[in-house]
Amino acid sequence: MIYYNNYLAVMKKYHFLNPKGVTAHNLLINGDFQINQRNQSSYTCDGTKRVYGVDMWSFSKSNTFMKVTENGIETNAPISQMFNKLKSGVKYTVVCSIDNVIHTKSITGGTYDTGVSQTIMYLAFNDVERIVITPNGTQTINYIDLFEGEIVYKHQKEDYAIALTRCQRYVCKNCDMIMSGVIQQTYLEGTTFPIEMMKVPSVKIIKFTDITGNDKSNEIYSVVCDKKGIRYIQLRNATSSTYQYSFIFSCEPL
Q1: Are 227 and 199 in contact (CB under 8 A)?
Q2: What is the value of pTM for the model shown?
Q3: What mean pLDDT is predicted for residues 118-123?
């Protein structure tokens, strides 16, 4: 038996997957918060809609924020990740480091549960489920792991390339792409995503300019995608033969 801040944790076993620290056993994606494809240093929420910050982690409470740090994220918001439904009645273990203090909690698939110090909630929705971590005021969350069973694995930071690939199934940013030889009202050939996404994503325009940097996003009529990439971009009244663009494609579950 080991105690953390008066919080009882049953540490049954430590386990290293391999020397490189690839945490494939972690059921959560981007548990180290190292993938931040939206590339903002901080995110805020006014409570009108759910906001995604670092990849796969969202929050919805008004007057809250998520700030990216070298040690994770600093936040005053209940942050959550939604994922495919886990096995009902099966035990899982949450391991969460907050301000470098480890908290653990056993939860059961298909149930609602809360922790003691920080709140660890497991909410069941129809076909998907959500885990919520609530800090006590403003705190730094260093990492969050979720394991099947009642075994606590020692945390190792996931390899960045593998973490990015896991995220890109749900969110992907293409940066500063160039389209040239554009003719007015032409359907433009698209690009391929680094990895096939889980489903057809929504599209958010980050930048769409002519070669001199003038905003031309109002010239986009439609961006049509499938799971593999952009099929085409249709323009209305194109004013330039060359465009530069960045989009965010997301099928992160809300």
Answers
A1: yes
A2: 0.84
A3: 75
